[in-house]
Amino acid sequence: MSTVGLPTPAEAPLGRTSEALRLGTRRSKLAMAQSGQVADAVSRVTGRPVELVEITTYGDTSREHLAQIGGTGVFVTALRDALLRGEVDFAVHSLKDLPTAQPEDLVLAAVPEREDPRDVIVARDALKFTDLPRGARIGTGSPRRMAQLNAYARSHGLDIETVPIRGNVDTRIGFVRGGELDAVVLAAAGLNRIGRGDEVTDFLSVDRVLPAPGQGALAIECAADNADLIAALAELDDPLTRAAVTAERSLLAALEAGCSAPVGALADLLADGQIVKEMRLRGVVGTTDGTSLVQLSTTGPVPRTHEQAMALGRELATEMLAQGAAGLMGERAQ
């Protein structure tokens, strides 16, 4: 995480108090790792220690598949409740887990520079996706991944079976190591953040599998009335990452789809040499068996405002809905 240009502790907006800031985080190894990285950055900005407050969410305790429990907010609600009760000062979320509707009492104070947004394969015998044997069993808890992998396999004459799974990184990779599955699909960002990127056997190009909206990005959230903390956290914000994920999440919201719906989206920058010219937003919706996909893209000027980024997402969603995207989503947000 870049800290270039961050103020020194003497310049800290919150003053020189030694009182620790409380950062709310999920208990998983990945959540603790990414929250620890944010804690270090916030401590550098504010000159204050940051302590992690572990919070258990419904998504952590439920054994149901995310598609069954709705996905939307299952990893977020408990953290937000702790913020609203004043039990923590700020919280760190995987941005792809955030519902698209922002509570009035909370503010998304920072979206740091994005990690690798791609999905990856961890397969037995260090196999690439296209080298998996006929009938290969591939584990994922994501309808979005199922839809795109099955569509890709169908169009390239590959024979695979996507198997719904839950669990943390250790559990999922354990299915491969134990021989129950031939491969699992995970997010590159998560493996990188816990130092296990060397276990990846294949990176799935975004031309093959679009990631979840916001994948690879973190969201730092705090109370809307804490102006000093908002100002301090804003030092960690990456404007281009924020514009990209805002466009992606606007697409998701306009499709009226929840976090577990089979929707992929990615906004990336198109450059002419060293000069960034435009932002391209790609979106996909599909049935989990891969038989039907709606995949479109739109390109426009790099958004300079929140509303411009939102408009880019709404524009693409309108086109996708006109192509029948609504009928392909099994779960619609309430």
Question: What is the topological layout?
Answer:
Blueprint: E1 21-25, H1 29-46, E2 50-54, H2 58-61, H3 66-69, H4 77-84, E3 90-94, E4 106-110, E5 119-123, E6 136-140, H5 143-155, E7 160-164, H6 169-177, E8 183-187, H7 188-193, E9 202-204, E10 218-223, H8 227-233, H9 239-254, E11 263-272, E12 275-286, E13 293-301, H10 306-322
Parallel strand pairs: 1-2, 1-3, 6-7, 6-8
Antiparallel strand pairs: 3-10, 4-10, 5-8, 5-9, 11-12, 12-13
Q: Which blocks of ≥5 consecutive residues have pLDDT under 50?
A: 1-13, 65-72
Q: How large is the count of helical segments?
A: 10
What average pLDDT do the residues reach? 88
Order of helices and strands: EHEHHHEEEEHEHEHEEHHEEEH
Structural class: alpha/beta
Helix content: 25-40%
Strand content: 15-25%
Question: What characteristic shape results from the CA principal axes?
Answer: globular
Spatial gap, N to C terminus? 35 Å
Sheet with the most strands: spatial strand order: 2-1-3-10-4
* C-alpha Rg (nearest Å): 20 Å
Main β sheet profile: 5 strands, mixed
What is the β-strand count? 13
